[in-house]
Amino acid sequence: EDKLLDSVPPESSICVPIELAQITHIRLGTLKGSEMTLESSKNPTEDYFVTDRLMILPTGISTARVIRTSIDCDLIDLYGLSSLKRLHFLLRIKSQNGLCDVYIEPILRVL
Q: What is the pLDDT of residue 66?
C-alpha cells in the first residue's frame, strides 16, 4: 500500500513519523495537473506521476549508496501543447547507526 508522506520544497527536509519507521521502499512523485494541490489529491497512484518503488532498506549499520531514477511526466509547454518529459533524480541513501537519511537531487541535462 502506498502512503503519501508530504510535499517537500527544494532545500528542505521532512521527518518520517515513527509509525512509518518500518518502510522499506520509497517512490518519488509529482502532481499530474497544475490545478491540483496536495490537499485535493485523493489517490497518490492516480493523481501523481511516480517512479518505481525504490528500496531504501539499509544493508548494514553504516552504509551509503546511490540510486538513479526517473519520472515520466506529461508536461504542458508555453504554447499549451502537451509533451512527455522524463525527469531524472539521484537518491543518496546514507544509513548510520540505524538512522536512514535519503537525499534527493535532480540531474540536470545541459544541451
A: 92
The whole-angstrom separation of Cα 32 and Cα 14 is 22
pLDDT for residue 97? 81
Instruction: Please give the backbone phi and psi of residue 68, each rounded to the nearest 5 degrees, phi first.
Output: -100, 135
| pLDDT score at 109 | 61
Residue of 2, 27, 96 whose CA lies nearest to 58? 96
pLDDT digits (tens, 9 = 90+) for 41-66: 666 667 788 888 888 887 778 889 99
Which of 94, 45, 85, 43 has its CA nearest to residue 65? 94
Q: Which set of grid coordinates corresponds to residue 94?
A: 546514507
Q: Cα torsion at 3, 49, 89, 1 (round to 10°)?
A: 20
d(CA 110, CA 96): 34
Cα dist from 70 to 6, 30, 52, 60, 78, whole Å: 19, 11, 8, 26, 23
Phi/psi for 95 (5° steps) reads: -120, 130
